[in-house]
Design goal:
The structure holds two protein chains of two kinds.
Chain A (H helix, E strand, L loop, with lengths): L3 E5 L6 H11 L6 E6 L4 H12 L2 E8 L2 E7 L4
Parallel strand pairs in A: 1-2
Antiparallel strand pairs in A: 2-4, 3-4
Chain B lengths: L2 H15 L11 E5 L4 H16 L4 E5 L25 E3 L2 E3 L3 H4 L4 H15 L5 H10 L3 E5 H6 L12 E3 L1 H9 L3 E4 L1
Classes of the chains: A alpha+beta, B alpha/beta.
């Protein structure tokens, strides 16, 4: 379990992204934010979000319809 | 050189002479918001908040029926009239509404209520919340002065934040922007 966790389960587009952006601000550079979501669209969206913002999508996986993303805060 | 080619050439030279305002990879976006029904209000605010979250500066220009989206109190409604694509999931199927039924008093209000309930159930943000998030994300909002006059609104009727402007204000902003949407 990561130190920084965002539970975005049950939220629909674009809320998981908006909340992740907000949460990342409180994650020190180099540390990882863990995000849990149930929106299937968030898989493509978090990849696009990371490509655009320069943060690193370390890992993403799915278990029992819950998507888990690990985003390393690497952007300025 | 043709006139058109000359203009393009001049533009290239103009651009080359200017120092970039921000990092070269920073793109910006503008959205012209022209519609204020519950369903049409969503796309501009979803795109504006998401772009802002992705580091894209956003300007929204509210004109005609988009302008009331800046009112302090929102009471958004929709109508199925003239919209054969609007089919709501009901009783295990998707049901539309014949135009003639939308003319019955209370039907539009009931449809709007149903849509809001459905959105809440599916975890879709309320428009009020999205608008708040857009303000938090420093999305620039311009209220069309002409529409303010036309529909007799003043800035006192509006939420805090929007500035007044006209077509020229928007065009100036659009010329400096990479993505310009009309919704």
């Amino acid at each position: 379990m990561s130190e920084h966790l965002l539970d975005a389960k049950g939220l629909n587009c674009p809320l998981p992204i908006l909340k992740a952006r907000k949460a990342l601000k409180d994650v020190p550079s180099g540390e990882v934010l863990e995000i849990l979501a149930t929106d299937p669209g968030s898989v493509a969206d978090f990849q696009a979000f990371c490509r655009q913002t320069g943060n690193e999508l370390v890992e993403h996986s799915e278990n029992d319809s819950v998507y888990r993303f690990l985003i390393k805060h690497t952007a300025a | 050189m043709s006139t058109e080619a000359q203009i393009v050439s001049n533009e290239i030279q103009d651009t080359a002479g200017e120092a970039p305002a921000a990092a070269p990879e920073t793109k910006s976006m503008t959205i012209i918001v022209t519609k204020g029904s519950l369903d049409w209000a969503y796309p501009p605010f979803i795109l504006a908040t998401t772009a802002a979250a992705m580091g894209v500066p956003v300007t929204m220009f509210f004109t005609f029926y988009g302008l009331p989206l800046l009112l302090k109190e929102l009471d958004l409604k929709l109508t199925a009239a003239g919209n054969p694509a609007m089919k709501m999931p009901m009783m295990g199927m998707h049901m539309g509404l014949p135009n003639i039924l939308t003319a019955i008093p209370g039907v539009d209000a009931a449809c709007s209520k149903m849509m809001k309930n459905l959105m809440a159930k599916k975890g879709v943000a309320s428009l009020e919340d999205l608008r708040e998030l857009a303000i938090d994300a420093e999305v620039r909002m311009i209220a069309c002065q002409m529409t303010m006059d036309l529909f007799e609104y003043t800035l006192d009727d509006m939420i805090e934040g929007p500035e007044l402007g006209g077509a020229a204000t928007y065009i100036e902003c659009a010329t400096q922007s990479d993505i310009n949407l009309f919704i």
